[in-house]
Amino acid sequence: MEEIYLAGGCLWGVQEFIKYVPGVVDTQAGRANGHSQSTQSDYDGYAECVRVRFEPDQITVSQIMDALFEIIDPYSVNKQGPDVGLKYRTGVYSLNEQHLIEAKRYILQRQDADKIKIEVLPLTHYIASDDEHQHHLTHHPENHYLCHIPWDLLHKYKSE
């Protein structure tokens, strides 16, 4: 099993979508590349993200990138839907350099590569979000109106 960290705006929607993608084994909402050791601290440069554990023999980093691109505006800087600010930037983070190489290759092979604003960086720090944010839209679907991902798209892979 391998791990990659995806930032795509509000983590509630990213987690609700990505956890159903075939080959994804587990997800956890969290914060990437900040400095604090606690979720109780002020914003410190982190990106809201989802840790994605996946089976590399079932899904590739390129396929994970395909899924991410289904739910984000890759041209937007620090904004996805109604969420605005540096913590809502789009990004791909990993401790595995090969994941970063594959993510960059995926972006560079696109015809719109020069417009894409997704950061692809080594994971320097990760902290899990509080329990209330884990699988939030599964437990509180009434909060979907806060999510930038349309409901039909959010559960595109749920039945597979």
Distance between the termini: 20 Å
Beta-strand portion reads 25-35%
Instruction: Please estimate the helix content.
Output: 10-25%
Rounded average pLDDT: 93
Helix/strand/pairing category: alpha+beta
Total of helices: 5
| Sheet with most strands | 6 strands, mixed
Total number of strands: 8
Which series of helices and strands comes N to C? EHEEHEEEHEEHH
The main sheet orders its strands as: 7-6-1-3-2-8
User: Radius of gyration, Cα only, in angstroms?
Assistant: 14 Å
* Form type: globular
- Residue runs with pLDDT of under 50 for 5 or more positions: none
Any key phrases for this structure?
six-stranded mixed sheet, two-stranded antiparallel ribbon, 24% helix, alpha+beta, Peptide methionine sulfoxide reductase MsrA, 160 residues, globular, Met_Sox_Rdtase_MsrA_dom
SSE inventory with pairings:
Blueprint: E1 2-8, H1 11-18, E2 24-32, E3 47-54, H2 61-71, E4 79-80, E5 83-84, E6 90-94, H3 97-108, E7 119-122, E8 126-128, H4 136-139, H5 151-154
Structure description:
The chain is an alpha+beta fold and 160 residues long. The chain is 24% helix and 25% strand. The chain has 5 helices and 8 strands; from the N terminus they run βαββαβββαββαα. The strands form 2 sheets. The chain has a 6-stranded mixed β-sheet with strand order 7-6-1-3-2-8, covered by helices on one side. The protein has a two-stranded antiparallel sheet with strand order 4-5. The protein starts with a strand and ends in a 6-residue tail after the last helix.
